[in-house]
Every structure is written in structure tokens, then in C-alpha cells.
Design goal:
It is built from six helices and six strands. It is of the alpha/beta class and 194 residues long. The chain has two domains: 1-36; 38-188, Flavodoxin domain (Rossmann fold).
Amino acid sequence: MKKQTLLALGALALSAFIAPKIFAQDVAKDNTMNTETPKILIAYYSYSGNTKEVAEAIHEEIGGDLFEIKTEGSYPEEYRPMTVQAKQEIERGYRPKLTSSLDNIAQYDVVFLGSPNWWGTITPQVSSFLDSYDLAGKKVIPFITHGGGGVQNTVKDMNAQCRGCSVSPDAWVGYGSRTMGIAGWLEDLGFKSE
């Protein structure tokens, strides 16, 4: 009985000596992985230029590749007829054909995805982007511009349409083209300025 107790105590002492070293190696491994810079894409659709300004402000802070989502079709220049057309497209689930394309979406780890808030959701152009590209396994960070509607269902709908990706609930939501606070928002998300 004493022999078994001594063996058990010896094993416990050995594990107490070895475990911290193994844990330290695991932490060192994790820290090495965390120091790698993720490959960033900043993709956006901008009707009036507001969302483009926010995309450029994000790019100025953290770098990455900018990509403007362009599609077939157009909108009337007058605001009211444009909003009527946009509402009809959203209600029908319209997905315009993309006219801009990315060669290798697989290279990106993080995708900042920008959309105006149209009728409480993301634009058909951003929905087309989500339908066209495999973002599985990527972290998607929304940035939303609006004219008074706030976030509404934009992030929820983006999450529903993004198959297999992780959409951050911590979206940038800004009125018009205002970019004040973007640096702090990016820092809170763990992105450092270049």
C-alpha cells in the first residue's frame, strides 16, 4: 500500500513539474499564431459615396485590399424614385449580376463588408456578393451607413446570408459618411493602425 502511495505521489510531483512547461509551450504556440497579420479585404457597395468614404477610412487605418462591389443595373437620379425601386428589388429578393470580381477570395482571413441600410436591410448588391463568394471560415465585420435608420436588420440579415462565416455583431454603424470613431472601433476589434 505504501509503495502505491509513493508511486502516486511521485507521478503527481512529476506532472506538477511537467504540466507548466507543456502549458507554456501551448501559450507560446498560440502567441506565435496571434502575431501573424491577417489578410484583410474591405468590400463595399456604395450608392451615394457614403459607404465608400467609410471603407476608405477603414483602409487608411489598417490597410488591406479595397474592393468596390459593382453590379449591372442602375437607379434613377431622383431620391424618391430610387428608394421605390430599391424597395421593390428587396421585396422580390433581387440579386443583380456582379460586374466587378475578385480573383482569390480564399486568401483573405477577415472581410470588412460595407452596405448602406436600405429599407432596414443590406442592399441587393451586397446580397449578390454574399451569394457569389465562399466566405466560409472567414470573419466578416459589417460596416453600415444610414440616413437615420440605424442598424435595423442589416447585420442580422448579413449573418443569415453569409454561409459558414462568422459575422461580428460589433458592426460600425454611422450616419451618412461620418467616420468619427472608426479608429477606436477598429482598436476595440483588435486591429491596430498601420
